[in-house]
Amino acid sequence: MTRRFVPPHPPRSRKPVATWRGFFGERARTAVYGWSELAFDSWYFKRNVLGHTVHVVLKPEWVQRVLLDNAANYEKPRLVKRVLGPTIGEGLLTSDGELWRAQRRIVAASFIPPAVDALVPVFGEVGEAMAGSWQAGVRDMAVEATSATMRIIAAALFSGDERLTTREAMDHITAAMEGVGEARIQVLLGLPLIPLMRRGRRGRRGQQFLRRTLGEIVRERLREDAPDDFVTHMARALQDRFGPGQAIELATDNAATFYLAGHETTANATSWTLFVLSEQPELQERVAAEAREALGSGVAADLPDRLPLLRAVVEETLRLYPPVPRMDREAVAPDMLGPHELQPGDFVSIWPWIIHRHKRLWDEPDAFDPDRFAAAGKEQRHRFQYMPFGAGPRTCVGARLAMAEALTILAIWLSGWRFAPVPGRQVRPSGMVTLRQAGGLPLILTRR
After folding, report:
1. So what's the pLDDT on residue 313?
2. Could you give the CA distance from residue 71 to residue 64 in angstroms, rounded to a whole number?
3. Rounded CA gap, 386 and 352, in Å?
4. Rounded distance, CA 131 to CA 295, Å?
5. What's the farthest any 2 CA atoms get from each other in the chain?
6. How buried is residue 43: exposed, middle or buried, by Cβ count under 10 Å (0-12/13-18/19+)?
7. Continuous H helices in 229-362
8. What is the pTM (predicted TM-score) of this model?
């Protein structure tokens, strides 16, 4: 039986926090900060945020209506598109309707199971190279996880383009993600997107670096001598469908989307898993033993299937620290969610962070318990109760890749190294778009 462990989460007040508090302090920097205990025991509540009606929907059956049963009535909000547009334009993450469907069809072929399984050796090469370069001592595993997943996404989708794996690229991506908080407030206030604070200015430079670099790569992929990779196939398919001008913009949009989402969410899942295992040495030893046995048969396509305990640990980590803590939609036409009436233009806010820790859906919801993801437990769960990669038609197209990548990297790292917490170091989540560890994740590494 796994020792009961309750990982840290932001403090919760007994009563709801005033909406205006979300624009100041930690609440303006961290999406999951400032929720009350009441939120984790309610199915629904409504807010008015600077004149915008927001329905916070937490009941799985109502979430299913928004994301699946009546999905055509709920589009990505225009405000969200304004915030993310400078970085990912009209790519797969922010588009709707036929534009979304056309892009989804084009990119989906690169993420079918055989294509992902063929990449497992690539995941292994990167994981082994990084683990082999370490020395015993304290190392920031958030940085290591990000570096690994950046190398992997560059190798798997961009033919290993070195422009995407430098320290400069990593710093720019971090800045672009952190700059979202300031842009969010400006959009809600109806203001132009002009970076005012240092964080916002760094974010703008990060966006510009990303767009400039990926735009160069996309244009190179339309040449006859381009490498045979994801970006080349995507850019040429988009050109056939939309014509040269729009195709270059859409290909850049999607290159940014997959570069960001392809490494950021997996890096966070990997680092959070290392954190929870560092706090549970007995469980870590069991996982490491499983990893060593599985790796004895080589780093092949079926490696992720040979890691059932590690998979359960990762899935439970994704429950407590979902890669994307919230999803928003905007109603196109009137609708009803249970007894609650929605009007066109209303926002629906769906929070995996809350749903994954909801008191009516999980026993001891804040406790870490990988046994929840045994086969019997999965059968009893509502399909919209656990959504680490989204749900419905817009489920993350790269979900299989992300899981296989995380499992492979973690198996290699845990088989050769022990990870322990730094005494006195507190770990807490931070971020508006994804959940990182505030200030990184320094851990003590020792060789096995």
Report:
1. 97
2. 9
3. 7
4. 14
5. 63
6. middle
7. 230-242, 244-278, 281-295, 308-320, 352-355
8. 0.92
pLDDT of residue 3: 59
CA distance linking residue 152 with residue 160, whole number of Å:
8
pLDDT at 167: 86
Q: How far apart are CA 104 and CA 96, in angstroms?
A: 10
Radius of gyration of the chain, Cα coordinates, nearest whole angstrom: 21
Helix (H) or strand (E) holding 336: strand 335-337
Q: Which of 355, 321, 369, 318 is nearest to 5 (CA)?
A: 369
What's the pLDDT at 378? 62
How far apart CA 388 and CA 294 sit, in angstroms, is 25
Cα–Cα distance for residue pair 106/91, rounded to 1 Å: 12
Q: What is the C-alpha to C-alpha distance for residues 239 and 255, in angstroms, rounded to an integer?
A: 14
pLDDT (0 to 100) of residue 67: 97
The DSSP H or E segment spanning 418 is: strand 417-421
Q: Are 330 and 78 in contact (CB under 8 A)?
A: yes
pLDDT at 232: 93
Instruction: Describe the strand order of the beta sheet including 44-49 as a list of residue ranges.
Output: 44-49, 52-57, 347-350, 327-331, 74-75
Residue among 445, 444, 443, 441 nearest 429 (CA): 441
pLDDT of residue 192: 66
Domains and CATH numbers, the chain: 19-418 (1.10.630.10)
**What is residue 252's predicted lDDT score, i.e. its pLDDT?**
93
Calpha distance 216→225 (Å, rounded) = 15
Q: Running along the chain, 448 residues long, what does each successive block of 10 average in pLDDT?
A: 79 76 67 90 91 94 97 92 84 92 92 93 96 96 94 91 86 76 63 71 85 92 90 92 89 90 89 97 97 95 96 97 93 96 96 97 96 75 94 93 96 98 92 87 97
Residue of 167, 197, 165, 169 lying closest to 181 (CA atoms): 197
Q: Report the C-alpha gap between 327 and 41 in whole angstroms.
A: 19
The backbone torsions φ and ψ at residue 436, rounded to the nearest 5 degrees and listed phi first, read: -100, 180
Q: Is 168 exposed, middle or buried (0-12, 13-18, 19+ CB in 10 A)?
A: exposed
